[in-house]
Amino acid sequence: MSAQAALATLQGKHIVLGVSGGIAAYKSALLARLLKKAGADIKVVMTQGAHAFITPLTFQALTGNTVHDTLLDADAEAGMGHIELARWADLILIAPATANVIARLAHGHADDLLTTICLASPAPKRLAPAMNQQMWANPIVSANIERLTTFGWELLGPDDGEQACGDIGSGRMLEPEAIVARLLDDTSPSRQISHHNHSGTKVVITAGPTREALDPVRYISNYSSGKMGYALAAAAHAAGAHVTLVSGPVQLMPPAGVKVINVTSAEQMLSAARSESRNADIFISSAAVADFRPQHVAEHKIKKGSDNTTILELIKNPDIVATIAGEYSSLFCVGFAAETQSLLENAGSKLVRKKLDMIVANQVGEGLAFDQDSNAVTLIWHDAQQKLQQRAFPMQPKPQLAHQLIDAIFAHYQAHQDTPSVSVN
Ligand code: CTP
C-alpha cells in the first residue's frame, strides 16, 4: 500500500489518546499531530502525573479538541463524560504507558478518567510502554503486561536504546512515527481481511511441560513454563479464532475466552489433542513433551535401598505433533523446535520428519527461552517450490512475539487455504 493510501485508513477514526506521566509524554505531542495528519479525530485523556511533563493546552492546540483529565467533574460529565468517551472511541492508545498505569489497568482499577474509560470501552486497545530499563525488566511489570495481553491489549514497543535517565536498554517509548506506522498496519486491508477470515477458525494449542510419574510422589519433567503457548492462545483468541489450549501443569492464569483442558502426562496430552483436533483448522504444538516415561509406575513410593546407583527404565512417549499431523492431513500443523545447537539445521529436519507446515525454531539452554519472559525465534517453512524459507523474530516479550507469530501463521494458513501453491513471507 502506498504511504498516501495508508494514511487514508485512519481517516475519521475516533482515537482516545491516553497520556500518562513519563518523560516520553513530550513525544505524545508529535504523536497527536501525526495521528491528526493521518485523518484521525483525537481526544486526549491525561493522567494526573502527565501534567508534570506536558500541559493540556499543548494537546488542545494540536488536536483542536478539549483535553479530558478528571473523572468526577460535574462540567465534564455534562459535556462528554467517561461513558460517552468510552463509547466514542474506535481505538484507545496509551502512549506513554508508565509502569504505574500498566499496573492499574492490569488489575482493573477505575481510579481516574483514563482507567475508567478503558474498563468501560469495548474498543481495541494498544499501549506504548515507556520506562527505565530495570523497571521494564522487572517480572512484576512483565506479569502485568502478560495479563493485559491475555485481555486483548496489544503492545507497541518498547524500543531499545539510550534512555532519558542515561541507562541503555529496553524501555524507551516507540517513536511516534513507528506507532503511527503500526496503527496504519493494523487498519490495512490485508490485516482486516485476515482478522475477519479467522473469526471461525478453530485452533488447538498444546503448552507447558508434561509430567511422567515414577511413583505416587515423583515424576520426570522439564523447565517449560507454558508462557509461550499461553501467549499464543491469547493472541489467537484476540485475532478472532476459537482456541482450545491443552495444557500441562503450569502456574499461569487461563487466557480469557480460551477453552483450557488440563492434562498431566504425554499420553493424556495426546488423547486430548487428538479429540480436539478432529474439527480444528490449525494445530500449534508448543508443549515441551517429555520424550520418555518410566516403563513401570510404582504403586508405592520407591525406597532408596542400599545401592549407591539405580537404573530407571524409560520407554518412548508418543510424538504428539507427528501423530496429529499424520492422522489429520488437512490440519495446518505448526511445531516448535527446542535446540541447543545447529538450530536451523535441526529445526528444518524436524519440519520434514514430523510432516509439519511450519516450525518455530527456538534456541534453548544457557538461560534462553525456557521459563523466560522473552524469547527470540525463527519461523521456518517450505515455499511453493519446496525451498526452505525463514523469518527471524528478534528477542522480545513473549506476549508481543505471540501476536507476531499468530499473524504470520494465520497468513500462511490463509494462503495455504486459498491457493495451496502460493507462499507468503
Ligand atoms: N513434540 C511432541 N511430542 C513429543 C515430543 C515433541 O508433540 N513426544 C513436539 C513439540 O511440541 C514440538 C516438536 O515436537 O512442537 C519438537 O519438539 P522438540 O523437543 O524440539 O523435539 P523432539 O521431537 O523431542 O526431538 P529431540 O528431543 O530429539 O530434539
Word description of this protein:
There is one protein chain. The chain is an alpha/beta fold and 425 residues long. It has 2 domains: 185 residues, Rossmann fold (3-Layer(aba) Sandwich), CATH 3.40.50.1950; 213 residues, Rossmann fold. The chain is 37% helix and 24% strand. The protein is built from 16 helices and 19 strands. A hairpin with a 2-residue loop joins strand 9 and strand 10. The longest helix is centred in the C-terminal third of the chain and has 21 residues. The chain is elongated, with a radius of gyration of 24 Å. Cytidine-5'-triphosphate (CTP) binds next to helix 14 and strand 16. The site of cytidine-5'-triphosphate has 14 residues, from helix 14 and strand 16.
